[in-house]
Give the backbone structure.
Amino acid sequence: MKLLKVIPAAVLGVLLAGLPGAAAAPTLPLKVADRDWRPLAQRYDQCLQDRLEGALKKHPLWQSLILEEKMAVGLVDLADPRAPRFARVNGNTMMYAASLPKITVMLAAFQGFEDRTIKETPALQREMVEMIRRSDNAAASQVIDRIGLKKIEAVILDPRYRFYDQKTGGGLWLGSDYGLHLEQYPEPLKNLDHAATVNQVCRFYYELAYGRLVNPGRSRQMLRIMAFPDLDDKFVRALGGTVPAHQLYRKSGDWKTWNSDSMLVWGPGWRRYILVSLIEHAQGESILQELVPAVEKVLKAGLPSRLPKTR
């Protein structure tokens, strides 16, 4: 007993998972049979939608921002990897997203590695860690310069990904660096350089979680970069260290009154989900912090019926 008391909980969980009879937790990226795979749009769940909308309506300010299309929320419940559930509010409302679209730079880099059009070097890997975990603008601009804005745009629009679609309100877009803006290619709908919709950001994390960005091996590498977020604000602050850093994959952004955050939480039991929110309001950061516990209450509702059975 004395030994167990000094072992950190996260380490103890790993040790117990290897014992005979213990239910093995699924690891990322997830593996599912082709017959169980569905695009995120086909995972829409009315029950989760109703509960999410009900939770948001309890806050008058949130409801006002939603009606003004200045707040958008996307939620994917991954408690059962074979049957994920998706809900969203203002899902196709595109907003300025500051640093959040840096995830497209990372994707373009790894697609380039796989296609052998970009040389994979330790220096470039370090720059991507700085760009994602610390949201360093200088590092982001260096990576963008190595790849080229037009190549990043080509990956965003690639039929394999299609993270931007004018027919559905736009989506993820990166049309300039984060420094001198010597080149600018704003998206055509709202003339934004750095944009996102919660639907497309949720899709990004969803495809990443199932190993479908480039391929499972490259998805695993991207997940490693997105883990261990260094900025203790918004969603991360709301979690308050209750999720180990290696189980939290995150990218946020903020500029003036625009605040955005996105994360894939891969904790135990019910605490496996994707949460994305975009807000235009002076209190945006505090709203994002308050959103996490509200959403976790939604996920815990009806818990026994949606967890997969273990053998």
